[in-house]
Amino acid sequence: MKKIVLLVSSIFCLSSCADLQTIMNNTQQSSGNSALSSLDISNGLKQALELGIAQGVDLLSQKDGYYGNSLVKILFPEPLQKVDNTLRSIGLGSLADEGVKLLNRAAEDAVTEAKPIFINAVKNLSFSDATAILTGGKDAATQYLKKTTTQSLVEAFSPKIQSSLGKVGADKVWSNIIGKYNAVPLVTKVNPDLTGYVTEKAIDGLFTQIAQKEEDIRTNIGSRTTPLLQKVFAKQ
Asked: How far is Cα 195 from Cα 48, in angstroms, rounded to an integer?
C-alpha cells in the first residue's frame, strides 16, 4: 500500500514521460518482476546481432545492394579518380560507369560469405561482452563484430571477390579501362589492386549497413520483433 501511495505521489511531481518511465522501471525491478538475468542479456544481444546480420547481409547481397545504396556504393579508388575524370573528358563515361557497376556486383556476390563468420562471433559472445554492448554507444555491437571478425572477413572475401571480378567480367572491363587511360599521353600509368580495394570497401559497407540495423533496434521499438528483444533493450 505504501508503494502505491509513493508511486501516485511521484506521478504528480513528474516533469516528463521519461521520468515516469524511470520510476516505473525502478519500482518493477525492486519487486523482482522484470529484473534482467545474465542469460536474458546474452540471449537478447545475440538475437539483436543475428537479426542485424541477417537483414544487413541479405540486403547487400541483392542486385544493386551496393550499387544502388549511396552509403555503401563502391566508387573508383581515390588514386583512380583522375582515371574516371579523364575517361569522361574523352567521351568514355559509359565505360567508367560500367567499371564502377561491376566493382559493386563483385561485392554483392561476395557478401554472403560474411554470415557464417558473424554467426561464429555471436556464438562466442560472453556475458561481459553483452553487457558492454547493451550499455555502450549506438554502434557498440557493430564495433564488437568489427573487432572480432575483420581479419576473417578479409580472408573469406578476398578470393571470393577475385573470382567474382572474373565472373561478372569486371577484370576485362577494368583491363580495358586501365589500358585506355595508360594510353593517354603524359598521364602517370596505374595498375590498381582491384581485389584488395573491393574487399576493403565491401567490408566497410557491410559494417555500415549493420550499424544502421543496430541503431534501428536500439531506437525503434517496432524493430524489436521478439519479447526478449523488447525486454532487454527497454533497459539500455
From this structure: 31
Alpha carbons 89 and 36: distance in angstroms, whole number = 62
Residue-wise DSSP of the chain: -HHHHHHHHHHHH-SSHHHHHHHHHHHHHHHTSSPPPHHHHHHHHHHHHHHHHHHHHHHHHSTTTTTT-TTT-----GGGHHHHHHHHHTT-HHHHHHHHHHHHHHHHHHGGGHHHHHHHHHHT--HHHHHHHHTS-TTHHHHHHHHHHHHHHHHHHHHHHHHHHHHTTHHHHHHHHHHHHHTSTTPPP----HHHHHHHHHHHHHHHHHHHHHHHHHH-GGG--SHHHHHHHTT-
pTM: predicted TM-score of the whole model, two decimal places: 0.72
Residue 76 main-chain phi, psi, to 5 deg: -55, 140
C-alpha–C-alpha distance, residues 165 and 161, integer Å: 6
pLDDT in the model for residue 79? 67
Residue stretches of the chain with pLDDT short of 50: 1-33
Q: How far is Cα 34 from Cα 40, in angstroms, rounded to an integer?
A: 11
Written as one letter, the residue type at 201 is: K
Q: Angle, nearest 10°, between helix axes 140-167 and 114-123?
A: 160
CB 53 within 8 A of CB 210: yes
Q: Alpha carbon of 162 to those of 74, 174, 188: distances in Å?
A: 15, 13, 25
